[in-house]
Write a structure and sequence with these properties.
- By secondary structure, the chain is of the alpha+beta class.
- It has one domain: Alpha-Beta Plaits, CATH 3.30.70.360.
- The strands form two sheets. A four-stranded antiparallel β-sheet has the order 4-5-1-6, sandwiched between helices. A two-stranded antiparallel ribbon has the order 2-3.
- α2 crosses α4.
- The protein is globular.
- It starts with 5 loop residues before the first helix and ends in a 10-residue tail after the last helix.
- The model has no long low-confidence stretch (mean pLDDT about 90).
């Protein structure tokens, strides 16, 4: 097993903190431990989030999401709590033409009702700041910061 160096961790933290958001929204999405015959694990969590991300992009950006590949800027970090429940901490860029309550309602609907593992515990806060970024990058509840960032579901705008 390769142990990441502090320099690598610091470089990732600098990279994440350098991402430019217009209207950063702090989001926490909690997962069910089990859905049907499937137990949640990190692979299922990533697949479930991908489904949510695609639905959210379509709900907010419309046909541009599918036709032109338009996507919301987001940073996604997966954690597991002490009671072994997976949850995501995210920074998602809210389009300026959506109010915070409307955007929060869309997030809740697409997560809780439209994904297999979406759980009712959803928290959406407007204007995430450096404190939120530090919180999602904390080492607690992670085996490794580098492995906890869901790179497949992050989207960093050019």
């Amino acid at each position: 097993m390769i142990v990441p160096s502090n320099a690598n961790i610091e470089a990732v933290e600098r990279f994440i903190k350098s991402v430019q958001f217009q209207n950063p929204t702090a989001v926490t999405l909690t997962m069910k431990k089990r859905a049907g015959a499937r137990d949640a694990d990190s692979i299922i969590a990533s697949e479930n989030f991908r489904h949510f991300r695609n639905r959210l992009n379509h709900a907010v950006l419309g046909s541009r999401a599918k036709r032109y590949g338009a996507r919301l800027t987001m940073v996604v970090v997966l954690e597991i709590s002490a009671d072994h429940r997976f949850h995501f901490h995210c920074i998602i860029d809210r389009p300026c033409h959506y109010s915070v309550p409307k955007f929060a309602a869309i997030i809740r609907e697409q997560w809780w009702w439209k994904t297999d593992f979406g759980y009712h515990q959803v928290d959406v806060q407007d204007q995430s700041d450096a404190g939120w970024t530090d919180y999602i990058l904390k080492q607690r509840q992670k085996t490794s910061l580098l492995d906890s960032i869901d790179w497949l579901n992050c989207h960093i705008a050019e």
